Amino acid sequence: MSNLNADTFDAHGYPAPSADFASAHFPARTPRTEFCIYFAVIFLVAIPVAVLGWFARLAVTGRMPAQNAVSRAWCDAQGITPLIFRP
Asked: Domain coordinates of the chain in residue numbers?
């Protein structure tokens, strides 16, 4: 074990991954700014659709939906945006 120096292990004593390993096994990350822009656009488009759905459900059932329109639009944007950046 004399050929291993302290740089080959992390703070917990596990072998540190090399740069070659990281670049070969993990895809490049999507820029956060681009993700946030797409999220905002999808959220703004989803708000009117969610409001219409909220009123339609209220009219049909006569009861308030469990989730408000903004919350529903937020959930839709959270579900749709990652699909755009999927490899």
From this structure: 6-84
Q: State yes or no: pLDDT of 46 exceeds 90.
A: yes
Q: CA-CA distance, 15 to 64, in Å (whole number)? A: 55
Strand partners of residue 15: 9
Tell the residue number behind the tokens 């992390």, with chain if given: 10
Task: Report the distance separating Cα 8 and Cα 16, nearest Å.
Answer: 5
Could you tell me the pLDDT band of residue 27, with boundaries at 50, 70 and 90? low
Measured distance CA(81)–CA(38) in Å, rounded? 7
Closest to 43 measured CA to CA, from 7, 82, 12, 76: 76
pTM: 0.62
